[in-house]
Amino acid sequence: MSTHRRGATLRWWPSYMHGLSRIAWAAVLVAALIATLIQVIVAPQAAAAPKPKNPRDVPLIISKAVSKPSLTGKQAQPEADFTPLLAGGAAAVPAKGGFDPKTSKESARTEDSVEFTNANGTKTMVLSQVPVSVRNSKGGWDPIDTRLVEQKDSKRVTAARTGVGIDLAEFANDPNLFRVNQNGTPVTLELKGAGKAGRKVTGSTATYANALPNTDVTYDVTADAIKESIVLKSASAVGEGRWVFKLNTGALTPKVDGKTVRISDKAGKVVAALPPIEVWDSAGNDKDKKPSARTDGTYTLARDGDAWQLTVAVDTKWLKDSARKFPVVVDPTYTFGFGQQAESIAYQQVPRRAHRIAVSGPATRGTGLARTCCGARRSATTLRRWRARPSPVRAWI
Q: Long-range contacts made by residues 176-183, C-beta under 8 angstroms, separation at least 24?
C-alpha cells in the first residue's frame, strides 16, 4: 500500500470509530431507560391454612360486672291514661288528672257509647257491646234503665227505660205473660200449663216461683233481650223434657233456623230472634273451678190459630242422668233490635264455654239479633238471678 493510501485510511478510521461509539452509548442509554420502566410482577404464594384450634383452648371473655336493674325503684310513668282499663272500673285507682269516676263528668252519649270530660280537660269514651242509651222525646239520648216498675193503671210491671216497650204479667198463667212492643207490633208469650204463681220483682228480674210443678220461671230484662230461665228444682220437674208456649207475633213471622228462631217483618228483615237454648246443671263449683255440665235444646214451631205454638225441648236422657245435679236451668231468650237497628249474631262453641259475639250495626248490615254472653262456671243459684253485662271498652280522646 502506498504511503498516500495508508494515511487516508488512518484519517478515516477514527471518524468511523467515533460514530460507532456514539451509537453504542445511545443503545446503552435506551436499554437503561427501558429497564427503569419495566416492572416484574411476581405472584405471591398462597398463605398456608391456619391450624384449627380447639374451642376449649379459646380463653373466656369476662364481662364487666354490672348491677341488676331495680324492680322496686321508681319507674317512668306512661303519658297515656290507662286508668279506665284497670279491673273494677269505678273501683279502679284514678290517675292524676285522668279518668276518675268520682270527678269525670258525662259530656255526651250515643246509643252504644258514653263520653266523659276529665278534671284535666282530657276526654274518655266508654264503648259498649250492647246499647246503653235510648232516644228521648227531644231527640237526645238517655241512659237505659232496665229496672222493672209497677204500672199505675194495672198490675203489670214494665221496664223503666228501654229501646222497646217491655212489660210482664202479675201471674204466671196470664195469656200475655210477657209482652214486647216490637216496632209497633206487640209480641206476646204464654206459658202453657202454668199455675197462678205470683210475681216477685227484684231490680230487673221477675220471678214466678212454682209456675210449673217444682219449677220456677224467671225473666231478666237486659238492654237488648228478655232472658228467660226455666229452673228445674228436682228430677221430678223434668217430665218429658218439653215446655210449650203460645207465641203471638202479629204481622211478624217466626221461622226455625237451625238452633235459632228468627222473627221477620213483611219485608223479610229480621227484627227479633230466639238464640240457641242453653242448659246447665249445678255441678259447677267456682272454688274448685269445676264447670257445670252443659247441653243445648231445640225449638219447634207449629200454627196455633192466629198464633204459633213454640216448643222448647231438651234431651231427657241428659236431664235424667244420675250425674245431674239440680237445680237445672233451661235458658231460652228473646232478643230484639232498637228501632231501625238490628244486630248480627255469631256463635262459637268451645269446650266448657259458649261464646257469643254481638256486632252492632244498621239494619241494612245486620243479619239477625244477638244475645248476651254466658260463661260456664256458675251455680244454678247464681244463674237464676244472673244477667249478662258485657264489659265496656274504653277509648281516649
A: 178/219, 178/226, 178/334, 180/226, 180/272, 180/334, 180/336, 182/249, 182/252, 182/263, 182/271, 182/272, 182/336, 183/265, 183/271, 183/339
Place of cell 288528672: 97
So what's the pLDDT on residue 130? 82
| pTM score of the predicted model | 0.64
d(CA 336, CA 368): 9
The yes-or-no verdict on residue 391 having pLDDT over 90 is no
Instruction: Please give the Cα distance from 154 to 169 (Å, whole number).
Output: 9
Contact 297, 257 (CB under 8 A): no
Quick: pLDDT tens for 343-369: 333 333 333 333 333 333 333 233 333
Report which of 196, 198, 240, 221 is spatially closest to residue 330, judged by C-alpha positions.
Answer: 240
Domain extent listing, the chain: 83-127, 133-396
For CA atoms 125, 131, 132, 136, give the dihedral sign. positive
- CATH code reported for the domain at 133-396: 2.70.98
Can you read off the three cell numbers belonging to residue 193? 200449663
CA angle 345, 280, 195 (to 5 degrees): 95
Alpha-carbon separation of residue 269 from 70, 131, 257, 365, 372 (angstroms)? 61, 20, 14, 11, 21
